[in-house]
Amino acid sequence: MTELDQTLTMLKDLTDAKGVPGNEREVRNVMKKYIEPYADEMLTDNLGSLIAKKVGDEQGPKIMVAGHLDEVGFMVTKVDSKGFLRFQTVGGWWSQVMLAQRVTIVTSKGDVTGVIGSKPPHILSPEARKKAVEIKDMFIDIGASSREEVKEWGVKPGDMVVPHFEFTVMNNEKMLLAKAWDNRIGCAIAIDVLKHLQNEKHPNVVYGVGTVQEEVGLRGARTAAAKIQPDIAFAVDVGIAGDTPGISDKDSSSKMGDGPQIILYDASMVSHKGLRDFVTDTADELNIPYQFDALPGGGTDSGAIHITANGVPALSITIATRYIHSHAAMLHRDDYENTVKLITEVIKKLDRTAVDGITFD
């Protein structure tokens, strides 16, 4: 087993933490533990987004670096008479990655282990076997035999349910496998950007933010941005890796290990050209690798931030990740480290003159 260094320990703590939209407390506490040593002030908005403020020049522009705390998961909606749990997805799920997967139900009495089940294929008709099981026909089995037993264990409607997976460093130690990379990797980037600026002069005020409820509509990004009123914003998130079998360059050309993805366009935002050019010029100058991508579907926190108040020049910077919105996703450590380096170097150049040039020229 690979011995975990300081960075891997942080990544494990962040991904192991449990937090679906609307229930991000545990993740927020982990992020706060890691980012607070590098912040001058810690804030939260009224929805629960975490905001770490680091002052370079109090009169300088405000720069927001946001990753979201929440992960896709489930919520218990009903307990039947035989002790099986019915549930609601919280965030986007593809039914084909859900069956027979282990989950953790977080209750007031402690965690309870369960597994997602359905009618077995052995008793289905040949035609039914060819079809994917619909989520509405799935249930969670916690090994209970009655509604009363479930109640005794502390499980009740409204409890959050999260995927269970162990953080794993692959044989290729650059490859990291975990649940909830979407978007604990963004939270980690925000932490490490503030860490890298710890002993650096920067002509601005930087806000490292862990937003809530991104997976159900970019909600925390909207309230956090309203509180901060940033001049420039970066949403850091996962993107699509196009380097697995069956994906053509037309579908996605990004590859793990080839650097951060600069998002040109997604369903929530057209990226700000001035800011995009500023970032890529900085990367070219410092020989930091990057790749372009566009997503016709989906979006990131930039989608909400860029239309806050009078508008905010914003850019989504993502990390090519395999198997997102499932129990286990994979990314490349070099992409993480290059993203931190790129954003840090950009921030060091974002004085008032540069920000005004990006915004108005």
Characterization of the model:
This protein is of the alpha+beta class and 361 residues long. The chain has two domains: 6-71 and 179-360, 3-Layer(aba) Sandwich (Aminopeptidase); 74-163, Beta Barrel (Elongation Factor Tu (Ef-tu), domain 3), CATH 2.40.30.40. Helices cover 28% and strands 27% of the residues. The strands form three sheets. Strands 1, 2, 3, 12, 13, 14, 15, 16 and 17 form a nine-stranded mixed β-sheet that branches. The mean pLDDT is 96.
Outline:
This protein is of the alpha+beta class. The protein is built from 10 helices and 18 strands. Helix content is 28%, strand content 27%.
Topology:
Layout: H1 6-16, H2 25-35, E1 41-44, E2 50-55, E3 62-68, E4 73-79, E5 85-90, E6 102-107, E7 110-117, H3 126-129, E8 139-141, H4 147-152, E9 160-163, E10 168-169, E11 175-178, H5 181-196, E12 205-211, H6 219-228, E13 232-240, E14 261-266, E15 269-270, H7 273-286, E16 291-294, H8 302-305, E17 314-321, E18 329-332, H9 333-349, H10 352-360
Parallel strand pairs: 3-12, 3-13, 13-17, 14-16
Antiparallel strand pairs: 1-2, 2-12, 4-5, 4-9, 6-7, 6-9, 7-8, 10-11, 11-18, 14-15, 14-17
Helix pairs in contact: 1-2, 1-5, 5-9, 7-9
